């Protein structure tokens, strides 16, 4: 939503961070130079209103922060008055002050923070937190948590919601084999019912917890269960993967896999599509080496879903989305517009079922300039090269590689043109 708030002085926000301790709220507000008495419009969540109502002037307007936020910001504009917003903890730490800045980039914003919940939990534990990776799961997907697990972070601080609970977080970590963490849970920090506990992930996955809460995962190196294949290495041996019907020829061998990923240039890419994923080796290697990526994998054989699931768990790589379908029957543009798929800027074609030209035609309609496609060919790659040029891609860059006694493979890279 674009703000129509003008002149600039009408876009004036004071954002005050508070915790759940009513007494400390009063002490904190007493330090804000009598700001409350000089304002008439206030905003925050319902819980915040219960904490600050007694400190507000008798004649005031309260704007609840609820979803959808468009309506909240419409009320802010209509208020035509400086607004005091109450938020939890530090309003610039995954907080509402950041939302205001995004929605109203020219607004005047002044912030009075208190400790955020993860800082408070670390203080209760007397734990250093300058080495902690922080992730918000509040109304967000698992992606950044998955990334932290894949990167084997030693300490992960997590903001939760009613879906991404401590139990759900523990269950996800355990599902992918990360049982060498313990969980610190802070419930209702700063409130009368505050509780802090340190437990195993197995215990955490079975529990129920008061909301609001937050979590710190701490890796316990050398303790608890740990699988050797969870070591994060460059180049997963193809012998480590579960195979389709035990057929070693149905997997992209490690040297070829690494060459293919290098040709895709994934450091600067956002979304990889793996077409014909079979065992999932390319998707899993890509996600392990480049955990910032959105990885979407496609395969027509139903049994490959079980193989992908097993290999993701075996390697400790969450976050890959896979689809069992005939890729050439998909309405790609429709699925992208509806948010069911991310637009790819890198594509690996591991299998095509004799429909290579059709696949290249489909990709040409959804990939932007600079998007990269890599195809591995056992035979003459001429069909791929011709299809690429016909549908607006560059001429192919090629490298040929032989692994042990297997057939030579030619890795071809093309780039989408303007």
CATH names the topology of the largest domain as Rossmann fold
What about the largest sheet? 7 strands, mixed
- The residue fraction in helices comes out at 25-40%
Net shape: elongated
- Our count of helices gives 14
Q: What distance lies between the first and last C-alpha atoms, to the nearest angstrom?
A: 31 Å
In CATH, the homologous superfamily of the largest domain goes by the name: Vaccinia Virus protein VP39
Number of domains: 3
Any overview of this molecule?
The chain is an alpha/beta fold and 418 residues long. It folds into three domains: 8-114, Tetrapyrrole methylase, N-terminal domain (Cobalt-precorrin-4 Transmethylase, domain 1); 119-226, 2-Layer Sandwich (Methyltransferase, Cobalt-precorrin-4 Transmethylase, Domain 2), CATH 3.30.950; 229-415, Rossmann fold (3-Layer(aba) Sandwich), CATH 3.40.50.150. 30% of the residues lie in helices and 22% in strands. Strands 13-12-11-14-15-17-16 form a seven-stranded mixed β-sheet, with helices on both faces. It has a five-stranded parallel β-sheet with strand order 3-2-4-1-5, with helices on both faces. Strand 11 (271-275), helix 10 (281-289) and strand 12 (294-299) form a beta-alpha-beta unit. The model has no long low-confidence stretch (mean pLDDT 90).
């Amino acid at each position: 939503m674009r703000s129509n708030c003008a002149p600039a002085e009408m876009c004036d926000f004071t954002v005050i961070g508070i915790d759940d301790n009513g007494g400390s709220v009063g002490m904190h507000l007493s330090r804000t130079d009598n700001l409350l008495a000089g304002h008439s419009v206030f905003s925050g969540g319902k819980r915040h209103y219960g904490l600050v109502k007694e400190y507000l002037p008798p004649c005031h307007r309260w704007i609840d922060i609820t979803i959808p936020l468009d309506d909240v910001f419409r009320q802010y504009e209509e208020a035509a008055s400086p607004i005091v917003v109450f938020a939890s903890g530090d309003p610039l730490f995954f907080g509402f002050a950041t939302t205001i800045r995004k929605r109203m980039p020219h607004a005047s914003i002044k912030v009075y923070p208190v400790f955020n919940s993860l800082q408070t939990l670390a203080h209760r534990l007397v734990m250093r937190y300058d080495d902690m990776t922080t992730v918000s799961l509040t109304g967000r997907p698992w992606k950044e948590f998955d990334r932290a697990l894949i990167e084997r972070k030693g300490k992960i601080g997590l903001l939760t919601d009613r879906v991404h609970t401590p139990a759900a977080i523990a269950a996800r970590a355990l599902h992918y084999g990360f049982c060498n963490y313990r969980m610190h849970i802070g419930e209702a920090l700063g409130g009368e019912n505050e509780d802090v506990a340190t437990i195993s992930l197995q215990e955490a996955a079975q529990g129920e917890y008061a909301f609001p809460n937050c979590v710190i995962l701490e890796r316990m190196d050398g303790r608890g269960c740990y699988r050797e294949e969870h070591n994060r290495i460059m180049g997963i041996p193809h012998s480590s993967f579960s195979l389709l019907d035990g057929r070693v020829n149905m997997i992209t061998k490690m040297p070829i896999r690494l060459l293919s990923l290098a040709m895709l240039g994934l450091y600067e890419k956002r979304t990889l599509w793996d077409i014909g994923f079979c065992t999932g080796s390319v998707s899993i290697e890509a996600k392990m080496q480049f955990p910032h990526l959105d990885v979407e994998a496609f395969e027509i054989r139903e049994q490959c879903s079980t193989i992908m699931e097993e290999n993701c768990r075996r390697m400790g790589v969450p976050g890959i989305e896979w689809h069992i379908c005939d890729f050439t029957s998909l309405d790609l543009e429709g699925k992208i517009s509806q948010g069911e798929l991310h637009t790819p800027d890198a594509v690996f074609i591991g299998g095509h079922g004799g429909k290579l030209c059709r696949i290249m035609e489909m990709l040409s309609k959804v990939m932007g300039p600079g998007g990269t496609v890599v195809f591995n060919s056992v035979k003459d790659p001429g069909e791929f090269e011709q299809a690429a040029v016909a549908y607006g891609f560059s001429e192919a860059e090629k490298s040929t590689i032989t692994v042990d006694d297997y057939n030579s493979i030619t890795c071809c890279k093309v780039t989408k043109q303007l």
